[in-house]
Amino acid sequence: MQIHVLLTGNCPLKSQGICANVSVIDNSIVFETATELNHLPELCSLHQPDLLLLVLDSWETQVNAIAHRLPAVNVLGLSAQNGQVCHTLIHNNVINGCLPETSPPEILIQAIRTVASGHTWFSQPLLKTILRPTPQPNEKQSVLTNRELAVLRLVTQERTNKEIARELGMGKRTVCDHLSAIYEKLGVASRVGAALKAERFGLVE
Prior knowledge:
Layout: E1 3-8, H1 12-25, E2 29-34, H2 40-47, E3 51-55, H3 60-67, E4 74-79, H4 83-91, E5 97-100, H5 105-116, H6 124-130, H7 146-156, H8 161-168, H9 172-186, H10 191-201
Parallel strand pairs: 1-2, 1-3, 3-4, 4-5
Helix pairs in contact: 1-5, 4-6, 7-9, 7-10, 8-9, 9-10
């Protein structure tokens, strides 16, 4: 299935490199490019992309200003180094995922496909830069079953539900049931939230 991506960044050369690297591996991902952040709402309405791929660069603080003007679109951010900004943007539902600019094309393609299909994506390296172990989890968080912990560990490794089901020898529906239980116990509503809690409280190795 073809995925239409609107790639926006203030460095045309960098954008060309991203397009070329991805297209060599997966030519079903088709790019449009833009260099003006302020024009994104109009461009998204015009092109109606499956995904807005945003190279954050120096735009981190400006993204919030235009977020409310964007039509309904899944947004994936690329960050040079500012993991804290990515975390904030994901937490505020401005973007659906983020990964480092240095990620290999295979990982970028997986992130594009995941976010374009309506799911969230986070990068473990970015999480590691912004999270440090804090005091022990509360009693409710500590009652995750061994099976739930196994699922959570794979979630933090950026595995899909299908990959988790295959590795743990269970059905995809069972994976979804475990995820629902994990979300309830951790007081979160998404894979990103669960991964953040897992990293923050050291719930998984």
